[in-house]
């Protein structure tokens, strides 16, 4: 960590102390502890940020509650698709009525949506009850921003266009005691033509391998057995470091950490997936047998318009190399339906890839126009009805291939990490297979956080029912 980053981290610790005292006074006056709630939208990166934000709020003395009827409410927003955006405005409507009842309540907004100028303008004009707005590059400043708000009558707005420093050494709370996400890089340089992420998350920056290893060692010492390495395009990790390190090399270093049992990562861009990575995965004991490899479209013509920089054939060849090297690998993907100019032929190419690649599952999205991206001004935007009809057809093909993949594993006994009580049946717990699929089986709470061997009794399409072996 460079000196300037350490100095900023120290400064923020000071801010936390000052703010903590003010919150203590407030809570004394009110005769009860102050509460907080964070609602997180979007991807793993946002969830990771929310853990850091929660860490700061708890250090300030706020108590976590399950409802947004709290003294401090933070919406960590996503703007990757329009519906993610709409959800946030929905929540804001509700929050307004809570604040009427509790005028001392503070409402803060952060995350990707706040990096968009038109969003901030709209909030300033129409949602004046919001107290604090900040973006994706300065989340570590939360205590300072609360301090500022407590000393002022106006809305505090602090949004940076890009990161100045990576400030990491601040408190954090983790949702699970036994597994954790670890940022290995921030931002994205790919500028896929439909995607807003590079605009709201800034340019790609990798963390130093030593800092990543140190963080994972610390997590393991706290009881973590599984880490998920996070980045928008992990396969280009390390290219811009002063002493470049490849993602495969980083994985090898992580593998050596004693006590760590499982390694996952997300997301892999097909254009940067190296042979070195395939070999490291193949020979690893800890890297999970799962790869999320978004294709977006099966049509080479559209892939070109999307600026993905691979063809359908290159992608399928990559899948074949992966399957040959790692036969038990589970593959998942992201697909966009209704990209501008998508013809029935283009769409059938996508269906063809789904059938050939035999995904374990696929996240399918209706194309959503994002202002400021090149695709937003492309001609031939697809009518919603056409896109929806294709979307439904795609869903049924995906369901078919994933059911086939899941069914093929029935009868095996596999190692799973037990994660939580099953949401569907209180007598069961849920375990995650190395390949990322879930199995529900009868079990006690004491199993949570441990690795167990489970027999896969029955497939239910996307998950299994099983029993302890
Ligand atoms: N960095 C990751 C994806 C991040 S966004 C990658 O490159 O794979 C997650 C997914 O959202 C993308 O894979 C894409 O399928 C989808 N997505 C992004 N922008 C979109 C848009 N404008 N409309 C619909 N889906 C979109
Ligand atoms: Fe968006 Fe493409 Fe970057 Fe993924 S790689 S975040 S889809 S621009
Ligand atoms: Fe959404 Fe931002 Fe992630 S736009 S998908 S939360 S990087």
Concise account of the structure shown:
The chain has 469 residues and is an alpha/beta fold. Helices cover 38% and strands 21% of the residues. The strands form five sheets. A six-stranded parallel sheet has the order 2-1-3-4-5-6, with helices on both faces.
Question: How would you describe the overall organization of this protein?
Answer:
This protein has 469 residues and is of the alpha/beta class. The protein has helices at 3-30, 44-59, 82-101, 117-126, 142-150, 197-201, 209-221, 247-255, 275-283, 300-305, 312-325, 344-357, 384-407; strands at 35-40, 63-64, 72-77, 106-111, 132-134, 156-158, 179-183, 185-186, 205-206, 226-230, 262-266, 290-292, 330-337, 361-366, 413-421, 428-433, 438-442, 451-459, 463-468. The strands form five sheets. The protein has a six-stranded parallel sheet with strand order 2-1-3-4-5-6, with helices on both faces. Strands 15-16-17-19-18 form a five-stranded mixed barrel. A hairpin with a 3-residue loop joins strand 18 and strand 19. Helix 1 packs across helix 5. The radius of gyration is 23 Å and the shape is globular. The two termini are 46 Å apart. The structure holds S-adenosyl-L-homocysteine, iron/sulfur cluster (SF4) and FE3-S4 cluster. S-adenosyl-L-homocysteine binds next to strand 13.
């Amino acid at each position: 960590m460079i000196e300037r980053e350490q100095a900023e981290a120290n400064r923020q610790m000071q801010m936390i102390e000052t703010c903590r005292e003010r919150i203590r006074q407030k809570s004394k006056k009110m005769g009860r502890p102050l509460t907080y709630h964070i609602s997180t939208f979007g991807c793993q990166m946002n969830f990771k940020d929310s853990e850091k934000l929660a860490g700061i709020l708890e250090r300030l003395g706020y108590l976590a509650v399950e409802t947004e009827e709290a003294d401090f409410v933070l919406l960590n927003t996503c703007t990757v698709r329009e519906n993610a955006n709409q959800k946030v405005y929905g929540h804001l409507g509700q929050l307004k009525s809570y604040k009427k009842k509790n005028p001392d309540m503070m409402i803060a907004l952060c995350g990707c949506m706040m990096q968009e100028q038109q969003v901030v303008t709209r909030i300033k004009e129409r949602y004046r009850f919001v107290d604090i707005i900040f973006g994706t590059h300065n989340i570590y400043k939360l205590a300072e921003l609360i301090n500022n708000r407590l000393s002022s009558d106006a809305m505090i707005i602090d949004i940076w266009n890009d990161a100045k420093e990576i400030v990491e050494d601040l408190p954090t709370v983790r949702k699970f005691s036994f597994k954790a996400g670890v940022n290995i890089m921030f931002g994205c340089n790919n500028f896929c033509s439909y995607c807003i992420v590079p605009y709201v998350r800034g340019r790609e920056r990798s963390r130093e391998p030593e800092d990543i290893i140190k963080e994972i060692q610390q997590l393991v010492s706290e009881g973590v057995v599984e880490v998920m390495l996070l980045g928008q395009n992990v396969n280009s990790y390390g290219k811009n470091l002063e002493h470049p390190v490849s993602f495969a090399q980083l994985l090898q270093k992580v593998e050596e950490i004693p006590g760590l049992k499982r390694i996952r990562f997300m997301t892999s861009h097909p254009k940067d997936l190296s042979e070195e990575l395939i070999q490291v995965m193949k020979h690893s004991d800890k890297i999970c047998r799962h790869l999320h490899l978004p294709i977006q479209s099966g049509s080479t013509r559209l892939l070109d318009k999307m600026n993905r920089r691979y063809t359908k054939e290159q992608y399928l060849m990559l899948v074949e190399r992966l399957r040959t090297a790692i036969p038990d690998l589970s593959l998942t993907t992201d697909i966009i339906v209704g990209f501008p100019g998508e013809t029935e032929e283009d769409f059938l190419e996508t269906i063809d890839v789904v059938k050939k690649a035999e995904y374990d599952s696929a996240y399918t999205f209706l194309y959503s126009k994002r202002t400021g991206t090149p695709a937003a001004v492309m001609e031939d935007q697809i009518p919603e009805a056409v896109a929806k009809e294709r979307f439904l057809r795609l869903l049924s093909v995906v369901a078919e291939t994933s059911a086939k993949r899941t069914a093929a594993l029935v009868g095996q006994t596999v190692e799973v990490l037990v994660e939580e009580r099953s949401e569907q049946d209180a007598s069961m717990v849920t375990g995650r297979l190395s390949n990322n699929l879930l199995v529900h089986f009868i079990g006690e709470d004491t199993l949570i956080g441990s690795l167990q061997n489970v027999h896969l009794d029955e497939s239910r399409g996307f998950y299994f029912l099983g029993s302890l072996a």
